[in-house]
Amino acid sequence: MTPFMIGWFRPSRTLRVEGQKARSVHPDPGAHYDGGVHTIDLSTIVPMVAHPGDPDQGVPSDPTNGANISDIGQVSINIAYGGSCTAGKEDDIAYYAEVCKAAQKAGLKVKEGVEFFIQYGSGQVKQLAEDRGWHELFQDVGVNLIDPGCGACIGAGPGVSITPDQVTVSAINRNFQGRSGPGKLYLASPLTVAASAFTGVISSWHPKLFV
Ligand code: SF4
To answer: Is the distance from the beta carbon of residue 84 to the nearest atom of ligand 1 less than 6 Å?
Structure first.
């Protein structure tokens, strides 16, 4: 039997493909879908953000809230915040590491005037980062690392904005006004958060961004 393993994930002694499939919920044969069947072309999906104030409206079709990054212009940031229970999982940390590794290779540090925080989602995730050398990598490029726990996403601890004019790009899951301080908080993916920390403006990630 093959251990359940995707990309860089650690092999598990307990999770196996067959076991996962057996636990999955499957439709009955010939099931009718009231909402119809929607086909999504993943190649057309581009990085986007939710504008400050309401995570529910993060759709680019609504011009008042949510936009493709390519359409928002130069949005300078003061804080990049990755992690929490939402974006501090093993795969998220691997995304931060991917960007930080490219930055390190290019001789970059976190942009002057920007604070980049990564909060591990659990002790297990932190251990993975240490085992992979990512913890050291993060420190080398200037990331502020935070141990697991509820933090800036409930307005507590490092990473909370202090003044209304501060701008944050964050991979947490909520950006209601005032939840993480008085500033403006854009929601984005872990890759966007990490890329933006080095450019100083909200940026979508691509492997040649720092080349
Ligand atoms: S405040 Fe909520 S979203 Fe943030 S880390 Fe705690 S449980 Fe997760």
So the answer is: yes
